Amino acid sequence: MKKFKPQHSRLLFIDKKIRDRAFPNCATLAEEWEVSAKTIQRDLDYMRTMLDAPMAYDAKMRGHYYTEESFHLPAIALNDSDLFAVFIAEKVLKQYENTPIYPRLQSLFAKIAESLPDKITIDPAQLNDRFSFFSTPHSIISEQVWETVFTALRTSQSAAINHAKPGETDLSARTIDPYHVVSFQGEWYVIAFCHARQDIRTFALSRINNAQLTGHHFNVPEDFDFQQTTRDRFGIQWSDKQHDVRIWFSPAAAPYIREREWHQGQELHENSDKSIIMSFTASHLLEIKKWVLSWGGMARVLAPPMLINDIRKELERSMGNYGGADEKRDHQTG
Prior knowledge:
Elements lengths: L7 H12 L6 H8 L3 H13 L5 E4 L4 E4 L13 H13 L9 H13 L9 H5 L14 H13 L1 E7 L8 E13 L2 E8 L4 E6 L3 E10 L8 H4 L13 E7 L4 H5 L8 E4 L5 E7 L3 H9 L4 E5 L1 H16 L3 H10 L1
Antiparallel strand pairs: 1-2, 3-4, 3-7, 4-5, 5-6, 8-10, 8-11, 9-10
Helix pairs in contact: 2-3, 10-11
């Protein structure tokens, strides 16, 4: 038999006709679906041989029926390649197991697995031994905060939160209108209109101590476009400013820079010595500074001057941790 993959929607249509005891045949199904009788016959053959449909033909009724009344096709048709993709997705999503949604995802994957026909040949246990995913360190989020924020987002309802800034323990009471949620490098952020600041702010869910729905509903402004608002971001921070950034990377760093897209608007210029210069426009410089510092002596900011000065000051502070009286005192106390 030739290899073919019937349209799943057509298979579900045939399955429903049979389960409704309509006793469909090739001619009636072909006429109703507007395909050839040969196409329907291939579908029926596929259902019998590949999906193990307990199908028989009733000569008196001139149509097909199921010999097991409880049988029905799974709502999702997956082959080995599809199952492999599901397996990979489940592994990737393990990085979110600190969130309350992860048990639900596990349940969903279990339902998908249960819907698969017996002829699927991939052994998940074997794949487990051959694939590993190293997750980004992630923050710990209160289940109560998670549920409240996502309910507020889903129902367009304001939320009263207690939030702490990075490195601070004092909580600030805020009322927010959640517009958007972002997952970034192990942290979840809610982009929301802050009533206290009368502006859009970013709040890390891990820094929210408590959240309660207010019962007040809001409308997301028509001119709010998250993708457009954050188009020049580098990381999770952004603003309404624009900075033309130019960074030199040494020949040793150049291959690693080329193999990734670090910014959607980046442009690379290769110098004669195999070093490269990356150029892009960014709306915030904080995370660019951290990124450049991570490259050590293999990177040098050429513009803007503000970023150059910030990095110079940061390096001076770092050098202060490793020299002179401080170093001598550390040896003495150690």
